[in-house]
Amino acid sequence: MRLQPEARGLAPGFTIIEMLMVLGMIAILASLVLTGVHGVRLQAKKTRARHDVEQIATAWGNYLQEYRRFPKTVTVTKMDSAALSILRGETAGPDNPQRLTFMEFKSATTNYADPWGSLYEVALDQDLDNKVTVPGLASPLYRSVAVWSKGPDGVAGTKDDIRSWQR
């Protein structure tokens, strides 16, 4: 005959060892879930950056197709307020005389940054020889537009950069 815990003078419930084991298992499971969530968030940011660089390259390509040149009064190297103003068609001037919209941005956007806070970088083929020079690359790229993000580490020329000319 087996005695119930009350009959042995013990209160029913879990022992401290059992409680610590359960808490340890919960902690291990939580760490696994949080690690997975971090990886998913990083991948989502990379996907957004890849989409952005492709959209920016397409917008500048459409600009070139329309005007058969790139802006003359503004040197575009980053997606700053001057570049956004041209692509939005905000002002009629020599860089977008028809005030065409090549890319839409949220109205409050003054600079176009990647998910890690750095402005997207741009290289335009100003002399129309179908070559652009990208800092950190040994040879020029044979294209009219190159756009890139410095990636999560914020340093240009590293393997985590997101580039419009690479998939």
Spatial order of the strands in the main sheet?
Answer: 1-2-3
Largest sheet: 3 strands, antiparallel
Ranges where pLDDT stays below 50 over 5 or more residues in a row are: none
Terminal-residue CA separation: 72 Å
* Rg, Å, rounded: 28 Å
Helix tally equals: 2
Order of helices and strands: HHEEE
Number of strands: 3
Structural class: mainly alpha
Shape: elongated
Helix content: 25-40%
Q: What's the average pLDDT?
A: 88
DSSP strand content: 5-15%
Detailed description of the structure:
This protein is mainly α. 36% of the residues lie in helices and 7% in strands. The protein has helices at 16-67, 81-88, and strands spanning 121-124, 145-149, 162-163. It has a three-stranded antiparallel β-sheet, covered by helices on one side. The mean pLDDT is 88.
Architecture blueprint of SSEs:
Layout: H1 16-67, H2 81-88, E1 121-124, E2 145-149, E3 162-163
Antiparallel strand pairs: 1-2, 2-3
